[in-house]
């Protein structure tokens, strides 16, 4: 086997960015929905907030290399800036923070575990990142306690369901299409299958 | 595409994209640390004027871009107004509790969302993506493999949108019911993602063969440097911040100085 160079190859980078941009398109379709549920003020919107972290967990599950989670989140959020969203700059900065927090969890597991637990944990971590930003931006600490509890609960649950559980099921479906062959060319089972 | 509607190039288009990005990110954080609504209202108004006269778009386009801000203003302000904490009660109905403090905090949040949104729009309306990435490579030493990957990916966007349409029609023609939450997202996401990944891998091979991943010295088709407009840009924002601060302190609209 050819020894791969340290860091990400151009193919990894391009694929990560392309996946992120697909989600950029999905976010663009997603945000009007988000805005409409948001007006009601009871934080129903927080349940779907987790959609904003999915790019990083999915690329991590597919490419399995250090740095892709952060890159994916930056790419997804800059896509929104380039496309001219009202949130532009804000999204970019949130994206960097959330990507960093997700990446930290993957790094803590030394990029060796790719299961629902680790991905959900990264979603929780990204949520914490987003909350730190919200703390400065939205004075969320000044909400009435019951309202804030609802807010936090909805955001964490949504993040785990969407960026954790749903991301894993998406990744499994994509494995079946065979597009991940490039990163995992031939496994032990493939060789066993040949020897049978 | 949507953002290629008729427009003039203004002096803001001539400023260095990296510098513009850095200045606007700094302003973003500055806005987060403004807790006085009077100062924030002044600064938002200044940004609004720049948005109207500095971006070079027609009045019609500007109005359409500005409309979503009303929704953002209402949605950002409303939950703090209704559920925020405060002492001076104005109105109470069940769980809804509007106080003077929470009301002004809500207004402040609305203006903050407005200011942050305008900062982002001013950037994206006056910056060509290609110039941004060339500038990031030249001024901020972003590695070419990242910059060119971004540029290549941006070019794939129209194809993705076309594929999205195809999937939509294909599902329709086969009579797949147009409902379901996650399963619906999956029906669209799997074909879109798998096709995009395959395409990305093919393009990456071609780009590697053409040494886009190389790390040696390279020349650039667009040489991007600094000019007089960059100086103007920095000075303008320093002055804007300074003026909105002093006007806000000395000629306040409302008597609250800190919404926290």
Automatic annotation (TrEMBL), chain A:
Keywords: Membrane, Transmembrane, Transmembrane helix. It holds the Pfam family ABC_cobalt. InterPro entries: ABC_thiamin-permease_prd. The chain crosses the membrane at residues 7-27, 47-63, 91-109, 116-136, 148-174. This is ECF transporter S component.
From TrEMBL, chain B:
Keywords: Cell membrane, Membrane, Transmembrane, Transmembrane helix. The keyword Membrane applies. One of its GO terms (cellular component) is plasma membrane. The chain crosses the membrane at residues 21-50, 62-83, 103-126, 231-254. Its main location: membrane. Pfam families: CbiQ. CDD domains: EcfT. It is found in: Membrane. It is a multi-pass membrane protein. This is ABC-type cobalt transport system, permease component CbiQ-like protein. It comes from Geobacillus thermodenitrificans (strain NG80-2).
